[in-house]
Specification:
- With about 575 residues, the protein is of the alpha+beta class.
- The chain has four domains: about 100 residues, Rossmann fold (3-Layer(aba) Sandwich); about 130 residues, Putative Large Serine Recombinase, Chain B, Domain 2 (Hect, E3 ligase catalytic domain fold); about 160 residues, no CATH class; about 90 residues, Helix Hairpins.
- The protein is extended.
- About 25% of the residues are buried.
- The C terminus is likely disordered.
Length: about 575
């Protein structure tokens, strides 16, 4: 037992840290009373610290205050009987400090090298929290967790379609999908100060945003280089090509990052509601358009391609005035009888969705039962396999191995069906929710004309995407794809937008609607126009009866001015100015 005249100082943090409270307490005690301690005992020099510079500072401090230091391994005393340093002892201490520092550096380097190799091999880390959508497989490999991966895919699909992170988080919570923390630490206290349990952790916009930004879902892993003294945000980040299987396609990840970048761009003001946010695609490069709005007389008020965010990456497609394209689509939705006919068949559409949801739920329940039965058969077969191995019955062992292989293959097929049905169920339930919330008639659209939030709701519901292609310097083609409950109609609305009209001193908003074209614009899966642009120019000229004079350098707007549909002033949609609350702080 320790005597009453002995004090124990026990440090619990790294010897490289500056904030070592126990060492500081010892130093303060000696500084206040130099006669309080005669000698300090430590097991080895590394207990004073790992940094040679800091250890020397402590040794000099002890020598100045005539406090001796005795090290157990190896046996070394700092001061002689006269209170001076031992010459040989000091030399040995210097060597030991250097070796201790080099040993730690070597171990850290080996540890970093091991982590890097492990990540490249596709192995999972040793921490508690694994990336959502992955789990630990054989040989510590990171493998896909099929059920969670469906949620990850839904998050990216929702975001690409124009949904925000808060909307996605709320949707996942409504559907009862649990976060990783909720599932793994349901009954454990994860925050003692707030007495917060794992079961209390639900989806938030930050959790969704973290998933969207994580490159692991496209098959790349982040490796943080530099010294561990720096914060993660200050360290260099290397994206590693690994053997980890990607959950989503790299192109989808990049698309979502461009959408996210356009939202956080300094000219993107979230005070305004943009009706076509996340819906417009560039027909030249396949990237998303984003809104750029400056509430000044000559400020930008356009949707532009996000390729312009990259230095030297401008694809050359034209920007489109926000009011022009939003108003043209509004005018077409109000006046087009065929479009409103589709929109107003809501009862029939709702019934179809409900029938599909019921069928999917029945299929999912059936497959869940099959999955459970299959898992039980696998467990019993494994037990029989173990028994046959212990009795050295080779023939029965081979039979059970084959049976186990067939059962595992069948379980894999069942899980794939569950995964597919689960994704379709999410999509149809979301479509049913939207149909229940929005009533769409011509009169109601007109009523919403001053409420951009409600108009945005309508646009989200019925517009799948809009693809923009510049026809010439004065006009652009907008192919508007209508979506009814998640199902896109085969033909698009083709609107020729008159860009020249908004350059006039008194702006003129007008467009030309083309129902059918012999050269129907065709696009690839990214939205890039595949039809020859000259063929489109020629047909647009034919449509208005000017083909004989229509050439490559001609401007359609100049030739066809009388054919354009002018948008009435009352139907021109504008972004209202944001008014500051007089009581709000600056």
């Amino acid at each position: 037992m320790l005597g009453e005249d002995i004090d124990v100082y026990k440090e619990s943090i790294s010897g490289y840290k500056d904030d070592r409270q126990e060492l500081e307490r010892l130093v303060n005690k000696i500084s206040s009373d130099t006669d309080y301690y005669k000698c300090i005992y430590i097991t080895e020099i590394s207990r004073l610290g790992r940094s040679p510079r800091k250890v020397r500072e402590v040794l000099n401090f002890l020598e100045d205050n005539k406090v001796n230091l005795k090290i157990q391994n190896p046996e070394i005393t700092l001061l002689n009987d006269e209170g001076k340093r031992h010459g040989v002892g000091s030399l040995i201490l210097d060597i030991m400090m250097y070796l201790a520092d080099e040993e730690v550096r070597y171990l850290k380097q080996r540890s970093r090298s091991g982590i890097l190799s492990s990540m490249k091999a596709g192995k999972i880390g040793g921490g508690k929290f694994k990336p959502y959508g992955y789990k630990k497989g054989e040989d510590k490999m990171m493998v896909i967790h099929q059920k969670e991966a469906d949620t990850v895919r839904a998050i990216f699909d929702y975001y690409k379609s124009g949904k925000g992170t808060k909307w996605i988080a709320n949707k996942l919570n409504e559907l009862g999908i649990k976060t990783r923390t909720n599932k793994s630490f349901e009954n454990e206290i994860i925050n003692s100060r707030l007495q917060k349990y794992g079961r209390d952790v639900v989806w938030s916009d930050k959790t969704v945003d973290d998933i969207l930004q994580n490159p692991i879902y496209k098959g790349k892993r982040r490796y943080y280089g530099g010294t561990s003294k720096l914060k993660k945000s200050e360290r260099t980040v290397e994206l590693l090509d690994t053997k980890t299987e990607n959950i989503i396609e790299p192109e989808l990840w990049e698309d979502c990052m461009e959408i996210r970048q356009s939202k956080t761009h300094r000219n993107y003001l979230t005070d305004y509601t943009y009706l076509l946010k996340g819906k417009i695609i560039c027909g030249c490069c396949g990237r998303n358009y984003f809104a750029k709005y400056k509430p000044t007389q000559h400020g930008d008020k356009v949707y532009i391609c996000s390729s312009r965010l990259k230095k030297g990456g401008n694809c050359g497609n034209s920007g489109i005035n926000i009011s022009l394209i939003e108003s043209a689509i509004f005018n077409e939705m109000v006046d087009s009888k065929s479009l409103l006919k589709h929109i107003n068949t809501k009862d029939k559409i709702r019934n179809n969705i409900e029938v599909t949801i019921a069928r999917l739920k029945t299929d999912i329940a059936a497959n869940q039962r099959l999955s459970g039965e299959c898992e039980k058969q696998i467990e019993s077969t494994i037990d029989l396999l173990i028994q046959s191995n212990t009795t050295n019955n080779n023939s029965r062992t081979e039979i059970f191995k084959k049976r186990l292989g067939k059962l595992e293959s069948e379980l894999g097929r069942i899980e794939k069906r569950l995964s597919s049905d689960g994704r379709h169920l999410l999509k149809h339930e979301a479509a049913l929710e939207v149909r229940s919330d929005v009533q769409t008639t011509s009169d109601m659209l007109i009523d919403y004309i001053d409420d951009r939030i409600k108009l945005r709701e309508v646009y989200i519901q019925f517009i799948d995407k809009v693809i923009i292609n510049s026809i010439d310097s004065n006009s652009a083609l907008a192919s508007v794809f209508i979506s009814l409950n998640g199902v896109r109609l085969p033909k698009s609305l083709k609107l020729i937008l008159d860009i020249s009209g908004i350059r006039k001193r008194t702006k003129v908003f007008r467009y030309l609607s083309m129902a059918d074209m012999s050269n129907e614009p065709e696009y690839d899966e990214k939205g890039i126009l595949q039809t020859n642009i000259e063929a489109l120019q020629y047909e647009i000229g034919m449509y208005i009866g000017n083909s004989k004079n229509f050439g490559e350098d001609d401007d359609i707007a100049g030739l066809t001015e009388y054919e354009f549909t002018p948008i009435l002033d009352k139907y021109v949609l504008t972004i209202p100015p944001v008014t500051k609350d007089s009581n709000a702080p600056e």
